[in-house]
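DM from R.C. (forwarded with permission)

"hey, sorry to bug you on a friday — could you get me a structure for this? deadline for the figure draft is monday and I only need the backbone to look sensible"
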Amino acid sequence: MTFSTGSLPQSVAVGNFDNDTRLDIVVANSNDNSVSVLLGYGNGSFQNQMTFSTGSYPYSVAVGDFNNDIRLDIVVANYGSNDVSVLLRFIIIGFMNRITLTAGHGSRPRSVVIADFNNDSRMDVALSNSGSYTIAIFLGDGNYSFSNLTTYSTGSTPMSIAVADFNNDSRSDIVFANYNSQTVSIFLGYGNGCFTNQSIYSTGPDSSPYFVAVGDFDNDTAIDIVVITRGANNLGIFLGYGNGTFSNVTLMPMGYGSNPFCVLLGDFNNDRKLDFAVANKGTDSLSMFLQTC
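My reply, with the result:
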């Protein structure tokens, strides 16, 4: 089944926007400077899109409750306007005029995540800024507003960002993929909105890591990392030791010309092990990796 969106959809997230226990979809439309919201019927089909304005060239979208009203809001990283749009939801399906958070001149944000970085039960925002080689942290006040950004230096051209607790201290940590440095980097959180200096792990020569995700792949209760390397057409896995450090990368070839760009995690065969679904731009295909051990 296909459903219409705006022009050049780049990123998608899911959530229950109308509190009807059915999952809905939000899509970032880069060429339209908008997001589309498609409300679900609960049977696999969706209503026609509703569109809402963002900044210029929205590239990544995520959802969370930023004002503690038990309604999901939308946050969008705008690559073209070097900022973030936060769209707060009405009680009737719709979104208020957006709040704009400036990421800095030439920052070129590519990916956005939501987490509570300072343990105050309020949602915060983290960005990977591909143009300024930084991550940006905006701490949420829980009342429609955010702190001024705090930035941390990364490798060259951070593209994708993910959040998990890598050292079992109940604090949110960050991993991101550095496209032009051929690395992934880890920031361990102190639980107060601040982070350690980055730890760096190689993804291999000419690998161009593009997308990163996290999960416990070997069922040892320690969070692991999976990365898509577009330059080498590989899937890379870093196994976590549970103390904030990781193994060297294990590479799984995707095939010449596959040009993978995204990986999603899930237990696709109900064996209580996380599997990988990889989207390949070069071959217009989906590759499934089912764990066997």
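R.C.: lifesaver. Residues 222 and 242 are 5 Å apart (CA to CA).
me: no worries. The first strand starts at residue 9 and ends at 15.
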